[in-house]
Design brief:
Number of strands: 0
Strand content: under 5%
Structural class: mainly alpha
Oligomer: single chain
Largest sheet: none
Order of helices and strands: HHHHHHHHHHHHHH
Radius of gyration: 21 Å
Length: about 300
């Protein structure tokens, strides 16, 4: 069941959503028609994924650390430019989260339902916690024991949410305070405006960062989906899956964003449900292995079959 939902989810969070982001950004920044961007993304993806998992790993190994470091540097530069607004931004975030009026409104009627719906959905897109996607890659790693690899994998959520998302939030709120005339109805547009305040290199830096983030996500989720398909049908339909994935990329670049998000949110939830059930059922095993290797100071020991 999990494998089926993973294969389906790969066409949402890691495929059509990312293709749509790339197409819209290229269209807004360079005026390139979305269908042309879609064709280019399809061709580029095909060149990589037809080379198999090793080809995907090589490209992501180069792209991910470089683009993350570049994005963090860009955020730090903007925060330095908005230095006098950083403290007010932090105060605004904390006050908005914990003041009585915000709390009162948050527990009334459909408000809490909407907050939970979009908070959980976008949280899944941020770090995929609870979906079970990260273990697919972790399982392929060469390591001494599973606890050692689990500790490495768990840092992904920290870097993604605590570092990248926190920096982005501070950049956006401090930019709103520094430039009150800018529109903040659209988060993506606001991010673009914030980065454009860096002379000459700001907008290209953000464009390059989003393009590389999205492209590496496309490659990674292709591997997730293909692994799920392999579990169901072994390797008999790998090539068919890759072709279908590439076709979905093109349609993702040209169809409505609302349709894409709704489909992706549904697929993510379907994927998370069996994984969360499995986590509960295996919690005793996880605790036992953690006590054995981590608290027993045996992380360097080889796992015995």
């Amino acid at each position: 069941l999990f494998a089926i939902f993973t294969a389906l989810a790969s066409f949402g969070i890691g495929c059509t959503v990312q293709a749509n982001s790339i197409a819209l950004l290229a269209n807004e920044t360079f005026g390139i028609p979305t269908w042309i961007v879609g064709v280019f993304v399809c061709l580029l993806t095909a060149l990589v994924i037809m080379g198999g998992v090793k080809s995907i790993a090589r490209v992501c190994t180069i792209l991910v650390p470089f683009m993350a470091a570049l994005y963090v540097v860009g955020c730090i530069v903007i925060l330095c430019m908005n230095s006098s607004f950083v403290r007010p931004a932090v105060e605004l975030i904390v006050n908005s989260a914990f003041n009585p009026m915000a709390a009162g409104g948050g527990f009334v009627g459909a408000t809490v339902m909407m907050a939970a719906r979009y908070g959980i959905a976008r949280g899944l897109f941020s770090n995929e916690s609870g979906m079970g996607s990260a273990p697919i890659v972790a399982a392929a790693a060469q390591t001494r024991n599973p606890v050692r690899q689990a500790l490495v994998s768990s840092t992904g959520t920290f870097w993604d949410t605590v570092i990248i998302c926190a920096l982005t939030g501070l950049v956006l709120v401090s930019s709103i305070l520094a430039y009150p005339d800018i529109s903040y109805a659209d988060g993506a547009a606001l991010t673009k405006v914030a980065f454009s305040k860096i002379p000459y290199v700001g907008a290209p830096l953000l464009t390059f960062g989003i393009l590389t983030f999205a492209f590496s996500t496309i490659l990674g989720w292709c591997y997730y989906g293909e692994s799920a398909v392999n579990y169901i049908e072994h390797q008999r339909i790998n090539r068919f899956y890759r072709i279908l994935y590439i076709v979905a990329l093109f349609f993702g670049s040209i169809i409505s964003l609302d349709v894409i998000w709704n489909i992706a949110d549904t697929m993510n939830a379907l994927m998370a449900i069996p994984n969360l059930v499995a986590l509960l059922l295996l919690s005793g095993v996880a605790a036992e292995e953690t006590n054995k290797y981590l608290w027993g100071n045996r992380l360097d020991e080889e796992m015995k079959e």
